[in-house]
Amino acid sequence: MCLALPAEVIAISGEVATVDLDGVQTPVSLAFLKDVTIGDYVVVHVGYALSRIDAETAAEQLAIMSGAEIQAHEGEPA
Amino acid sequence: MRYVDEFRDPKTAKAIAARIHRDVDPNRDYAFMEFCGGHTHALCRFGLEDLLPDNISMIHGPGCPVCVLPVGRLDLAIELALSRPEVTLLTYGDMMRVPGGNGASLLSAKARGGDIRMIYSTTQAVDLARDNPDREIVLFAIGFETTTPPTAAAVKAARAAGLNNFTVLCNHVLTPAAIDAIMTTGSEQTRARLDGFIGPGHVSTIIGAEAYQGAVDKWGKPIVIAGFEPNDLLNAVHRLVNQVNRGGAQVENAFARAVRPGGNAVAQALCEEVFSLRDSFEWRGLGTIPASALRLSDGYQEFDAEQRFALTYTSKPDHKACACAEILRGEKSPVDCKVFARACTPEHPIGSCMVSPEGACAAYYLYGRYRDIKRTNEPAAA
Ligand code: SF4
Questions:
Q1: Is there a contact between B55 and B35 (Cβ–Cβ < 8 Å)?
Q2: Min CA distance, A76 vs chain B (Å)?
Q3: Pocket lining for ligand 1, CB < 6 angstroms
Q4: Residues 6+ apart with CB under 8 A from B105
Q5: Pairing of the two strands A24-29 and B136-143
Q6: Residue range A18-41: mean pLDDT, rounded
Q7: CATH classification (class only), A5-73
Q8: ipTM over 0.90
Q9: In Å, how far are A56, A73, B257, B268 from B253, measured between CA atoms?
Q10: What is the pLDDT of residue A70?
Q11: Fewer beta carbons under 10 A from the terminal one: N or C of chain B?
């Protein structure tokens, strides 16, 4: 029910985007998300884009997860 | 798929698990509740609990909208579809097979002649209302904050199109209220064990990370918001362990690639316009919780199906054998239910937790976790 998937925006026409959802092109409403451009990835849920995926943050998170021992909050006092 | 596959890398999963093993305090137990049923499914599907140290237990939370909808609310929809021939009832597919009172379901009501149709998006609801002016189109709206804005958008679109044959049977519920309910109505034992929460990722894209500050302040338990891929979840468990070790109780946003501190302001404003808080709402398992659900706001009363069809809610009991209530409160695990995988299966579900793709019973059944799972109420290290 709350499940949503990341999908790439490949076209925008007014308030409706076409996204590529794992190879399937699907229309998605941009009613809640105004600052979207082609090439962005958005979180799609029941036909609506809920949020934009921030590529930089995602890359940082991946780097931390994949082994960088420096995790900002780690070992810090409360 | 981008932003999915990278967060499933098995090498990274092992590295995070190694860090968890390194950082856990062997002299204590940890119990974390993953609030969201989507997280429960990811835990089971990827066998993540097997990667965790024995002294970490995951308690499955109430974040499954289909599961927490009480029988009485489902029966309102079933009775409406059967008693009003002019009504076309629209529902997301998840709801179709959930057992209501007397074992009836939307699917069986459809077989008995009710005009009940599955939709994928609320945009279809508005189109159906426009294309069928002689039908009363009723959207059976359920879900947490993730699913609420699409309902609000449909109501706005219906008003803009001047449609007077579209209404909403509103059952939208609120995540922070459910967290409070776990901390107030759950068993003493569960509360005492609980060291922190994994916060729901998709709900948080709407309500934002800041929405949990109140719960953290009130209950003194850390909340780490996580995405739905296996490494997201392991990372969240690691962050929880670290917080607990240093006595922290903070909101951490471990799904920052999609969740902003303030959430989605456009969606929030729309929901605020279209909906108001109900005084109280009954949840399966969690009981009647004040200010925990939404109704159509005063400015949108003409879209309220409960008003238009004069529906009155009656509370109805769950099936006697079903332990969904205790499971949703984190007191039991599916394997504690006597009929689990015997009389109750996805083909013949007795309770909602076996039907929904986010239900804990369905997750255990699908991924075979019931073979050697720890019982919820046994401390892990015992
Ligand atoms: S196994 Fe079936 S009957 Fe038992 S708690 Fe789960 S849904 Fe209810």
A1: no
A2: 8
A3: B 321-324, 327, 334, 337, 339-340, 344, 350-351, 353-354, 361
A4: B78, B96, B97, B98, B99
A5: unpaired
A6: 93
A7: mainly beta
A8: no
A9: 15, 12, 9, 19
A10: 46
A11: C
CB A11 within 8 A of CB A1: no
Q: What is the dihedral of CA B322, B323, B324, B328, to 10 degrees?
A: 170
- B246 inside 8 A of chain A by CB: yes
Going by the DSSP 8-state scheme, the letter that residue B340 receives in this structure is B
| H/E run at residue B150 | helix B148-160
The pLDDT of residue A23 is 86
pLDDT tens-place string over residues B215-230: 999 999 999 999 999 9
Distance CA A9, CA A37 (A): 7
Chain A touched by B121 (CB under 8 Å): yes
Question: What pLDDT is recorded for position B372?
Answer: 52
- d(CA B246, CA B63) in angstroms, rounded, equals 28
Digit-coded pLDDT (tens) for B23-67: 999 999 999 999 999 999 999 999 999 999 999 999 999 999 999
Nearest to B68 by CA among B223, B206, B182: B182
| Min Cα separation A47/chain B (Å) | 5
Strand partners, A43: A6, A51
